[in-house]
Amino acid sequence: MLNIHPIAANAADAFQTGSEIAPYLARLARRVPEALELLKSEGAGALHDHAISQVEAAGDAGTIDETMAILRRAKLAHHMAVAAADLAGEWSVEDVTAKLTGFADAALRAALKAALNAKGLKPDGLFIFALGKMGAFELNYSSDIDVAAFFDAQVFDEGCGEAQDKANRIIQKTMRILQDQTGDGYVFRTDLRLRPDPSSTPPAVSTRMASLYYESVGQNWERMVWIKARAVAGDIGCAEEFLETLAPFVWRRHMDYWAIADVQAVKRMINSKAGAALADEAPDVKLGPGGIREIEFFVQTQQIILGGRDEYLRGRKTLSSLHALVAAKAVETPVAEELSAAYIALRAAEHRIQMLQDEQTHRMPKDKERRTLVARLCGYDDLAAFDEDLLATRTIVSRHYSNLFAEEERKTRSAAEGNLVFTGVDEDPGTVATLSSLGFSDPSRVISTIQNWHRGKTAATRTERGRGLLTALLPDLLLNMSRTGEPDTAFLRFTQFFEGLRAGIQTLSMLVAEEALLEDLVTTLAIAPRLSQTLARRPVLLETLVSQNAPEFPPSFDKAMDFESRMDEVRRWKNERAFLIGHRLLHSRLPASQAALAWSDLADTCVRLMADAAAIETARKYGPQPGHWVVAALGKLGGRELTAGSDLDLLIVFEPSEEGALEAGGWFTRFAQRLITAISAETAEGNLYETDMRLRPSGRAGPVAVSLSAFDKYQHNDAWTWELMALTRLRTVAGNEALARRMEEVACDAIINGKPDEERKADILDMRQRLWREKPPRGDWDIKLTEGGLVDLEFVLQQGMLLSRNPDIIRANTGEAIETLRDDGFLSEDEAQSLDHAFRLLQSLQQVQRVAVGSEVSSADFSRALKERLALAADCPGFQVLEHRYSEVRRAVADIRCKKIGPLATDS
Predict the structure, then answer these.
(1) Is the pLDDT of residue 263 over 70?
(2) What is the mean pLDDT of the segment spanning 226-234?
(3) I want to staple 634 with a disulfide (CB 3.0 to 4.6 A). Which of 64, 649, 713, 811 is the partner?
(4) What angle do CA 392, 396, 402 make, to 5 degrees?
(5) Is 250 a domain residue?
(6) Closest C-alpha among 105, 102, 144, 153 to residue 128
(7) Do 747 and 763 belong together in one domain?
(8) Which residues neighbour 675 within 8 Å (Cβ) at sequence distance 6 or greater?
(9) How far, CA to CA in Å, does 875 sit from each of 162, 592, 862, 863, 886?
(10) How far apart are CA 394 and CA 276, in angstroms?
(11) Residues with Cβ within 8 Å of residue 762, at least 6 apart in sequence
(12) pLDDT at site 259
């Protein structure tokens, strides 16, 4: 067993010896000489206390920069104190990790306080949890810190409507205070990725969103994360209340087979990813075989399984929790003693690895000279003896870890009761009975289909490996189909997906390895045929679900990349992001309003990227750009209210330079044509969006790119009233900012001037009645065109903006337009509330409907699962209640439209 010895009799001498071995410790001595003097005169404890007192005062420093400077100097002094006491053996490993964590706690509190003070905000309702090692008071010497930030939207900043944005800014500033590199270094690297669904949630997550996430889709690994959660900074009382609400998620009184199997699957995943051999001379003492993580997992998995029934097993700290498992007779005393000794030895070695260069690494150096330095810091003069003792320690850990769940893992992983046999020619009666019990209406059809798969009649099962993976997958697959409530629909759509795979080994392997992914896939197929078709065409998107982390930022182009390559690169990125947005919306992980922004931001980015690419390509072929251009959005994109599958209403305006006036028209026309091609052309990667340029001056008869002067003249002299209504949703997406401002000023001036009010009102009524006659709704669930739907609502708002003659009330976004028209007096308070309530409901329903079934509008075609999802989106207890509420809001919108504009039918 590894035996760590002090390298000197007292802290000051130990630090001196250590600084002769470890370059980082030598740098500390040079950078904070005053700390070294305090260490020599009063000892490590006094230096530690001094550093903590400095940190505790840092939050009230005059400026953020002063806070950052104080924290960084204090961190250096604290590192010196900890290293000195650790190397001298004055503090135990548990003392060392506790003091490292205590400093992190104080630093996090100070950073949050400084960030709040800078904005004049109070911490009420905003709080930060320490997770992982920080939550358990087990930070290592050069650890990053895992934290998660939450806020109660009803409490933080007195429940103001901007609570989310303010909380985000505060948390981002807090993290920057800690992790930004300055001349004094940094305090801590911070990691917020353990929050719910980190790739789609903001840095600060509302408690309501977090609760919904954990209640609906929280996974077992996340339950293990929350074992160690500890409220550290901000509103601690509010944090403790939130933590209490998560207790049923973390600690289940009765663990079903599936949850235990999932925990065991995590263990198998860890085993498969361990990578290095046990006998590696330069092992990772944390992540490698026989490392610290195996001890932590040994404890945490048993806590998760047993802690729901025994509160005594719910501790955060690894060693005390291990002793609690002994008391509960879940672990034998000799095993616990060996693992405890190994944990202490490995943690001490880990600290000394990090003392060399203050690097966040847990791996022993491969170079013998550097590994000898670690051995010397551990009190060893003989590297061979050190290596031998380290291997012995890790061998002990590996043996006990391998025995964990060993018996259970030899059992079958299926929890389906009864036969599930799909081999042979004849049907197995037991399998027919099992499938019937799972809710399949035609078990024979299911059996026949699966038998064909086993016979290799689809590309995914044409190899032995593919058929073996299918066999392993089927019990969980069928059980998940049953859980949707519509197993026949789920099976039909899975069949379409599965038989559309060109090759299936990778997909099947993912589904076998990722139980959550399989459940997710089946649910998606049952609810959303539109997403099902997308998956069937592009099964590679399943990898996006595994990571839940499609690249957030668009691709950066190589200067040498050609136009077509850029088109494909953007399409690949957009497909992943769009699928992830749709998936999260469908599974209640993204509110409808945020989904609209996400779709719109995605479209904005794609348009900007393709506009830049089109400009480069046009310049390459036809010479330098003779002036400036802008691309503007209208319609849903203009209002940042895009849905899945929406097309883009675009307008391209240019202004020629003096020297380029003659060739400008032709150049910008070519640019516009390339841009339309870049967005809407079908390539091997599909298209980006359908584009609609009909809202440009003169519609289809006009040029695809229009000069600013022609735009000005048309909008003031020739534009129809409906064109001016469309202009109320004008928003610049790409191009020259100065030109964009002038274009927007032209549009605004045209909106507020022109025809008398009575003529405009007559035009609007005529247009609404013509639209009703010529493009009637296809049913009550045609949310856009139905009476009292989104078109009615938009007409009311756009009429208000045209009649107000007030440029300050023109807003592209529907929600904002309702507010400004209420403030302007066009809408009464009751009317504004009715329209706002209606818009939120209609938008939520349309967002889910579009991502699930596209343009289908008959509720008779909605699956039961989709009806439940629509009801959830509307915060209704069921679909019948939703239908009643939907009818009421449509009636309210129709009444306001009738009052403001007039009836739909000309003979009413």
Answers:
(1) no
(2) 96
(3) 649
(4) 135
(5) no
(6) 105
(7) no
(8) 610, 611, 614, 631, 652
(9) 22, 12, 18, 18, 12
(10) 12
(11) none
(12) 47
Residues 71 and 135 in one domain: yes
How many residues appear in the chain? 908
Please check whether residues 730 and 761 belong to one and the same domain. no
Together in a domain, 723 and 767: no
Confirm whether 241 is domain-assigned.
Answer: no
For helices 333-357 and 318-327, give the axis angle rounded to 10 degrees: 180
Collapsing DSSP to helix, strand or coil, 208 comes out as: helix
Give the closest residue to 247 by CA, choosing from 214, 288, 208, 285: 214
Phi, psi for residue 404 in degrees, rounded to 5 = -70, 125
Number of domains into which the chain is organized: 5
- Please report how many Cα atoms fall inside a 13 Å half-sphere around the Cα of residue 561, on the Cβ side: 17
Whether residue 449 sits in one domain with residue 377: no
CA distance 888 to 788: 9
**What per-residue confidence (pLDDT) applies to 793?**
97
Which structure tokens are listed for 608? 């900007």
SS3 516: helix
**Each residue of 377-393: pLDDT tens digit?**
999 999 999 999 999 99
- Residue 268 is assigned to a structural domain of this protein: yes
Q: How far apart are CA 26 and CA 32, in angstroms?
A: 10
Domain boundary among 485, 516, 547: 547
**What are the two backbone dihedrals, phi and then psi, of residue 185, each rounded to the nearest 5 degrees?**
90, -145
Query: Is there a single domain that holds both residue 770 and residue 859?
Result: yes
Residue that finishes a domain, picked among 728, 752, 776: 752
Residue range 318-355, pLDDT digits in tens: 999 999 999 999 999 999 999 999 999 999 999 999 99
Kind of pairing between the strands at 731-735 and 230-234: unpaired
Separation between Cα atoms, residue 648 and residue 657, nearest integer Å: 28
Which residues, at least 6 apart from 192, have a Cβ–Cβ distance to it below 8 Å?
A: 147, 148, 149, 171, 175, 198, 203
pLDDT, tens digit, 9 for 90 and up, residues 402-426? 887 665 444 444 444 556 767 655 6
pTM exceeding 0.70: no
Task: Give the other-Cβ count within 10 Å of 219's Cβ.
Answer: 14
Bridge partners (DSSP) listed for residue 127: 150, 234
CB atoms within 10 A of CB 877: 10
- Token duo for residue 670: 């070519």
* Pick from 637, 638, 661, 767: nearest CA to 710: 661
- Give the pLDDT band (50/70/90) at residue 262: very low
- φ, ψ (nearest 5 deg) of residue 486: -135, 65
| C-alpha of 759 from chain center | 49
pLDDT recorded at residue 188: 96
pLDDT at 548 over 60: no
**CATH at 598:** 3.30.460.10
Nearest-angstrom CA–CA distance, 763 and 74: 71
Q: Look at residues 555, 530, 535, 533 and name the one whose alpha carbon lies nearest to residue 545.
A: 535
Which burial class, exposed, middle or buried, applies to 193 when counting CB atoms under 10 A from its CB (0-12, 13-18, 19+)? exposed
Domain carrying residue 828? 757-900
Q: What is the Cα–Cα distance from 271 to 280, expressed in whole angstroms?
A: 16
Residue 556 lies in a domain: no
Same domain, 510 and 595: no
Tracing tokens 């035609």 back to the chain, one arrives at 442
Helix (H, G, I), strand (E, B) or coil at 232: strand
Asked if 792 and 881 sit in the same domain, the reply is yes
Contacts with 875 (C-beta within 8 Å, 6 or more apart), sequence order: none
Separation CA 354–CA 813 (nearest Å)? 52
